[in-house]
Design brief:
The chain is an alpha+beta fold. It folds into five domains: 4-61 and 119-210, no CATH class; 222-344, Roll (SH3 type barrels); 350-407, no CATH class; 425-580, Lysozyme, CATH 1.10.530.10; 588-656, SH3 Domains (SH3 type barrels, Roll), CATH 2.30.30.40. Helices cover 27% and strands 19% of the residues. The strands form eight sheets. Strands 10-9-8-5-11 form a five-stranded antiparallel sheet, with no helix packed on it. A five-stranded antiparallel sheet has the order 24-23-22-19-25, with no helix packed on it. Strand 1 (239-245) and strand 2 form a beta hairpin. The longest helix is centred in the N-terminal third of the chain and has 20 residues, at 186-205.
């Protein structure tokens, strides 16, 4: 139970605030339904008057304002060098936004912006509140609470909304609706913050608060006691050590703290559970329950990760899980993932050699069924037909026994974007029509009349012009367009001339209409690929290849960890249809082996470097390796002349093509 003294202290705080001398405009808060929260924010100097002396309680709150409320209420003091493209240091809430970002409470969009002046929706506010709950280390679990309009809540936000409702931070309307897309008012925002602080105080001061035990408030049910309370005030025992026997979990002992349960893990077959959820295990893997942002300690950056993504399990505690995703180590909330011990595995995504081609079969952990598969290139020589192989990064593969079997770099997946395809505009148009006829004949409704309606028709000349001027592979852009636009037939392609899902983010899809498909391609090149993904030092540069979550565009461009492989699959199928011109005359690809590697304009160190690779493992195209300790490469910077790096700091890779 919450202690009465907590609420008395809060009431005293509000009373003291209300008895402070107010100017004439402060009367607008008297009797307001959100008065307590508003006066709390005023006391924290988070809510200021406008030029007319008003606190604007009924105005909609912006993302920047809400970030400020949280930063001030939580007394955040630590900030790193996190920056957003639209939040200069001169912006009125710049410091508070940086503080909230450093604490992991706010995140930006994939284009690097934060949109501080945009009105915040109720569902986005709920997400930020739950991140603040995590920052404050307030115990929480999952929740089954739903609103009547639950289906209209963005699917990856539903659990945060449910947990917020369970903790009493947010409430719906009187008729059971949450209204997720409605904009919240300053008054509503102040109440949400006020409830958060009250919850934090109650948890800190009262160890008997039920949420500390992850009971979801059900401490009045005798079914939760399991006979293990030892006669102590009927308190439940949420942490259960269970043993895996013959594919089932068998109870061993219950404990009142995670730490006590952790000490009881004396062999590899034991796990810790709470509310039937596995919280700790000796080995296995982790699967995301929804879209998450992984803070990679490896590259000191945030990585978007789609639901149903498999990751290596490293460690866990009661609130978070340490994982490794394609080499990136970071932490995720327990509520956002499922832990699956190896002994309880019902299925897992795998790779096979199908008639000389590599096929990736995906497993859906919600339905416990194999859900989809795709082919994306030739199979490496070590893969035997009829055997399953597994990989965390799409590069290093093991067999069913966990033994390492080989390393394989798919040519199309790790071919740098500055490469030039050997196909002409006419050949590209020929392939486009051929592929459209194929998908149209499939009978799928989305591809009806694709041969006459697709936005890909006639793009060959435009793609080759981009290749000539922007030095970005025409076939690569076509493969990207095919994948992102359902061969030019998606709603965004048909109605908005948007072939690439530009500005269609996981968390806030926008509907920007382009004047033409050509304008859309130019925007992709000029505002996304060229400055941010290809040019060294760009905001999202992790290698100028479509790649995987280990390196390349896929690290930041898409949350799907296999996006890069799927783009490679489109390139491979085009090659297969047109005669493998590119694969039969391949580029030599190498990886840099050190961070801080300078790229030069000649084979000496006398001039300033053309650019520097700040990270290692960056793919480059080697055009000449016989230069007395140097090699000539194609510049990742838009630079028409050759570039040079030391041979001592690259590793040539054998690509599968």
């Amino acid at each position: 139970m919450r202690k009465l003294s907590i609420f008395l202290s809060l009431l005293m705080l509000v009373s003291l605030i209300m008895w402070q001398p107010q100017n004439a405009y402060a009367d607008e808060l008297s009797g307001h339904m959100h008065e307590s929260g508003l006066r709390y924010l005023i006391a924290k100097e988070a809510l200021l008057q406008d030029e007319n002396g008003s606190y604007r309680p009924n105005d909609t709150v912006t993302r920047g304002e809400f970030a400020t409320y949280i930063a001030k209420a939580l007394n955040l003091e630590t900030k790193n060098n996190s920056t957003f493209t639209d939040v200069p240091n001169t912006y009125v809430f710049a410091d508070e936004i940086k503080l909230a970002a450093t604490a992991g409470i706010i995140t930006g969009y994939t284009d690097g912006s934060f949109k501080p002046n945009a009105r915040i929706s109720r569902e986005h506010m709920a997400v930020m509140l739950i991140r603040a709950v995590d920052y404050l280390k307030i115990p929480k679990g999952s929740s089954s609470i739903t609103f009547k309009d639950n289906a209209t809540i963005f699917k990856d936000f539903r659990q945060d909304v449910a947990i917020g409702a369970q903790l009493g931070l947010i409430k719906g309307s009187s008729n059971g609706l949450f209204l997720p897309r409605d904009n919240a008012t300053i008054g509503e925002a102040s109440t949400f913050i006020f409830r958060l602080i009250a919850l934090a105080d109650s948890v800190q001061q009262n160890p008997d608060y039920p949420d500390n035990n992850n009971n979801n408030g059900n401490n009045d049910s005798s079914d939760n006691n399991n006979g293990n309370t030892g006669g102590n005030n009927n308190q439940t025992t949420p942490y259960i050590v269970q043993e895996i026997l013959n594919g089932n979990l068998v109870d061993k002992q219950s404990y009142t703290s995670f730490e006590a349960a952790e000490k009881a893990l004396t062999n590899h077959s034991l796990v810790i559970t709470s509310d039937s959820k596995i919280l700790k295990m000796s080995s296995g893997y982790v699967v995301t329950n929804n879209y998450v942002a992984l803070n990679s300690e490896t590259i000191k950056d945030q990585i978007a990760v789609a639901a149903n993504t498999e990751m290596e399990y490293l460690d866990s505690d009661a609130t978070q899980v340490k994982v490794r995703l394609a080499g990136h180590v970071g932490y995720l909330k327990q509520a956002d993932v499922s832990l699956i011990p190896s002994a309880l595995m019902k299925g897992r995504s795998y790779y096979t050699n199908e008639n000389g081609e590599i096929k990736h079969t995906l497993y859906d952990y919600k339905s416990n069924k194999y859900s989809a598969s795709y082919v994306y290139g030739k199979a490496p020589s070590f893969m035997k037909q009829g055997e399953k192989y597994f990989s965390w990064d799409g590069i290093n593969f093991t067999n069913a026994n966990g033994s390492s079997t080989g390393e394989a770099y798919n040519y199309y997946q790790f071919l740098p974007a500055r490469a030039k395809t050997q196909y002409t505009a006419e050949e590209l148009d020929q392939y486009i029509l051929q592929k459209l006829a194929e998908v149209e004949s499939s009978g799928a409704s989305i591809y009806k009349n694709a041969t006459t309606k697709s936005k890909l028709i006639g793009l060959g000349a435009i793609l080759k012009e981009v290749e000539a001027n922007a030095h970005i592979n025409a076939m690569l852009i076509l493969a990207l367009a095919q994948h992102e636009s359902a061969y030019g037939m998606s709603d965004h392609a048909q109605n908005l001339n948007n072939l690439f899902g530009l500005y269609v983010y996981d968390t806030n899809p926008l509907n920007k209409k382009f004047d033409s498909v050509e304008a859309n391609i130019n925007e992709l090149v000029e505002k996304f690929l060229q400055p941010n993904y290809i040019t060294p030092g760009g905001r999202y540069t992790n290698g100028a290849v479509v790649g995987s979550k280990a390196m390349g565009f896929n690290v930041k461009y898409a949350s799907d960890p296999f996006w890069g492989a799927k783009i490679a699959g489109h390139y491979y199928r085009a090659e297969k249809a047109l005669g493998f011109k590119d694969a039969n005359n391949p580029y030599k690809i190498a990886l840099t082996t050190t961070a801080g590697l300078n790229v030069r304009t000649d084979t000496s160190t006398s001039q300033s470097p053309l650019y520097t690779f700040n990270k290692s493992n960056m793919p480059v195209i080697v055009t000449d390796a016989s230069l007395n300790g140097w090699c000539q490469i194609i510049s990742d910077q838009l630079h028409t002349e050759p570039a040079y790096i030391s041979l001592d700091y690259i590793k040539v890779i054998n690509t599968v093509r």
